[in-house]
């Protein structure tokens, strides 16, 4: 499957940050069962590379696995070799963008100002993660005024209440963190059932007529 087209089609990237490595595969299955097709495992999580390898090996034909919080090119390389098909960062690092593209993965660096966003895109990024997205949907709309050709993926502070406001503003998708996956919660069977239900709510919301 083409990773970039899958991201643009499915729009929601579920972020798993700081989870117990033994729980990530269960969380990923629960998200998949709820219709989530894009899962980000952050590199500041325990045993991130081995977890990415395990999840991509087990679910790689059903969901796309990406690596998040990638701060340098070497980490991007390691993540891609472990099975990540897209690389997200909280900042703009040109060498990370170039390495990601060289290895055939989708590059999604994080930027905030128009200058950062344009710089990241001109240096080869596929999508720009607008982070944090706490200024709201109007900020996305304002950025797209002079930069309508740049795909933006707001992340941070997005939930079911404002998800479609960001899409209406022109975002190509959204990164969803603790509003979807709360890794501080005990990962019980009940929690996993609730997670699947919540995932399906996000998927239904993104597919509704907004």
From TrEMBL:
Pfam name, any one: Aldolase
The keyword ATP-binding belongs to this UniProt entry's keyword annotation: no
Keywords: Carbohydrate metabolism, Lyase
Tagged with keyword Lyase: yes
InterPro entries noted in UniProt: Aldlse_KDPG_KHG, Aldolase_TIM
Pathway: Carbohydrate acid metabolism
Subunit: Homotrimer.
UniProt xrefs under NCBIfam families: eda
Family the UniProt entry places it in: Belongs to the KHG/KDPG aldolase family.
Protein name per Swiss-Prot or TrEMBL: Bifunctional 4-hydroxy-2-oxoglutarate aldolase/2-dehydro-3-deoxy-phosphogluconate aldolase
Annotated source species: Metabacillus rhizosphaerae
């Amino acid at each position: 499957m083409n990773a970039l087209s899958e991201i643009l089609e499915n729009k929601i990237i579920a972020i798993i940050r700081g989870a117990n490595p033994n729980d990530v595969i269960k969380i990923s299955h629960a998200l998949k069962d709820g219709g989530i097709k894009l899962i980000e495992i952050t590199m500041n999580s325990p045993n991130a590379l081995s977890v990415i390898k395990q999840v991509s090996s087990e679910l790689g034909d059903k969901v796309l696995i990406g690596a998040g919080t990638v701060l340098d090119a070497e980490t991007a390389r390691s993540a891609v070799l472990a099975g990540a098909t897209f690389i997200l960062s909280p900042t703009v690092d040109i060498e990370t963008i170039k390495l990601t593209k060289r290895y055939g993965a989708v590059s999604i660096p994080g930027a905030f100002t128009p200058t950062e966003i344009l710089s990241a895109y001109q240096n080869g990024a596929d999508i720009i993660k607008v982070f944090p997205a706490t200024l709201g949907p109007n900020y996305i709309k304002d950025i797209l005024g002079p930069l309508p050709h740049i795909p933006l993926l707001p992340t941070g502070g997005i939930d079911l209440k404002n998800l479609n406001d960001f899409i209406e503003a022109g975002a190509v998708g959204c990164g969803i963190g603790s509003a979807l996956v709360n890794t501080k919660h005990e990962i019980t069977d009940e929690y996993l059932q609730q997670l699947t239900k919540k995932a399906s709510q996000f998927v239904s919301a993104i597919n509704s007529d907004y």
